[in-house]
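Entry type: protein chain
Record version: 2
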Amino acid sequence: MHIRMQVAQEYLKTTTLPIKHIAYMLAYTEPNNFVRAFTAYTGQSPGKYRVD
């Protein structure tokens, strides 16, 4: 999961791909599952991480 979250962080910072597309690219079956996992891992939502 650590590698998957690092890839997610890279995509969020370097692309404008929608979060749901990033979730599917990282093999999450539902975007909400990705959002929950990302938030648990980083302490902030993917949307907030992308803005900060």
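Comment: The helical segments are 2-14, 19-25, 31-42, 46-51.
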